Amino acid sequence: MISVVILGAGNVATHLFKAFSASNHTEVIQWYNRSYSAISSFANAVDTTDNISKLKMADIYIMAVSDDSIAQLSKTLPFENRLVAHTSGSVSIHDLDKKNQRAVFYPLQTFSKEAKVNFSEVPICIEVTEKKNLQFMKELAEALGCTPYRITTEQRQTLHLSAVFVNNFTNQLYRIAHEISDAKSINFDILKPLILETAKKVQHMSPYTAQTGPAKRNDKKTIKRHLKQLENEEHKMIYELLTASIKKTHGQR
Amino acid sequence: MISVVILGAGNVATHLFKAFSASNHTEVIQWYNRSYSAISSFANAVDTTDNISKLKMADIYIMAVSDDSIAQLSKTLPFENRLVAHTSGSVSIHDLDKKNQRAVFYPLQTFSKEAKVNFSEVPICIEVTEKKNLQFMKELAEALGCTPYRITTEQRQTLHLSAVFVNNFTNQLYRIAHEISDAKSINFDILKPLILETAKKVQHMSPYTAQTGPAKRNDKKTIKRHLKQLENEEHKMIYELLTASIKKTHGQR
After folding, report:
1. Residue B164 belongs to domain with CATH number
2. Of A174, A187, A225, the CB nearest to B207
3. What is the pLDDT of residues A34-49, one digit of tens each?
4. Mutate: best of B167, B208, B212, partner A, most A CBs <10 A
5. CA-based nearest distance B13→chain A, Å
6. What is the reported pTM?
7. Domain boundaries, position A6
């Protein structure tokens, strides 16, 4: 049984707490947060504390805190030579204080308080400073049913950037479609199967091969009519820029 | 049993042929295409023809042809007062020659030759000129296991535009992420669960509620670093424009 202490109380911390608690191979022996109120509702399920000096001995300390807090919090840890990991997609492993053994445990998935996450489908990006900890980190990911990937800091930062494109930006396109269709009293449900199919398609074919539509065909008439339909200047700009991008990718003028 | 004649041989025509053939409630009695070679491989499965004057009597003629061909092809149909539907997201129902009873049967889904489509999840947008045909059109959609929605021409054109955002533009964001991660030798598989989860999330919550990430948080440090990481000017512009759009949606300066 791997013993885990979780530090932080955001979305990632909360989802990790639940996942590590549910696994038969891991046990959350303590949950620390600077502000006690954020974790007080879990006091019956786990030892909760806001006192950093009272951290228990554990196999790993997982810091799921904001990027800006990682360096400072790792400095204040009241012990040395234990295994400490952060969960950030962008912070260097070297931001962790070197008095401890350092690692990264970055789950590449979108976490919001409202939605449940099926951890068996979450890729975990792993980095270590001491090679001897690599196998342990992989086992920790596998204990949640996750697939571990060993990647470099640069690769992790590129994945974090790529995730903004496929998650935040994609979601904003859904939002714009929601606005456009709402304005004409269209039920957004009609678009949901298309949203899902678009994501499913690239699970087994490349986005390049999966592309269809007026921009790929260079269907100027449709593009012109769409631009005329768009009332919002910002939506027009996004339409033009992404149409140009598709044309370029598919060799249209 | 509803008898169907299909006209056209593109992706939509081919998927509709397969779906109508598979249904117990419909029968494709003929498949017409201007160029015979495109449908010749189906000659054993259905009566195929490139001779418009030899079209058989059927309950409905479904024209799954390019937008620009609809008006002309509907004029050349050698009969009157039968039910003729097109499958376009953008062409007016009035582009169909008025010598026949007119309808629209627009499946809001992405169709490519390579990918199978589960028709039971395809919304069908229906429009008719004669009210008496509405029920028949709904039954035709339901025969494929689809959900029919009666919508106006304007709503259909708005859906077509919205579909470009959630399908073509979203897919281009996947493509950009593929390019960015390929450049650092990252396995694109790592991003696939996130792509799927992002689409799944908005099946049961609004895109507004589902949003996360640096733009929503107005995390200037991360945004700045991401822009620095992007080497391609076009990718930078897309990053900036969509970041500004998210900030605006979520009330950030």
Report:
1. 1.10.1040.20
2. A174
3. 999 999 999 999 999 9
4. B167
5. 15
6. 0.91
7. 2-151
